[in-house]
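Most newcomers find our protein records easier to grasp once they have seen one. To make this concrete, we reproduce a full record directly below:

===
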Amino acid sequence: METRGEKNPQLIKVAKAIYEKAGFMKNQLFYAQESIKNRYPCSIFKSKKINGEYVIYYCILGKKDNIHRVSVNDLLNDKLLLEKFHPIEAAIVGFIAGGNTLIKLSQDEQEETFKMILANMLGEE
């Protein structure tokens, strides 16, 4: 029988194993969270219509001077910049561009422009 001063060695081994597993799981969770942030370094925080054209304000994470402005059409034509946004934000940009450009065009031009926007968003050539 145990007294107050004695410790159970099996219980200590189990406690250490649980502590190590919990620390490992905590590190995995932290790594997964940080890798998602680093995978998409650009983030949209505002869109505004200026002189009949939509402009996106975005920030690049990890930089001091991080507020940038680009028109939606320029962003869609720049594939390297577009791929730095999260897929949900890229869909938002496509939705804004689609609404902005398709309303002004005729039926045939709408179809052609929609295919171009879709190809840019999906990265097809």
In short: Helices lie at 9-39, 72-77, 79-82, 87-102, 107-122. The two ends are 76 Å apart (CA to CA).
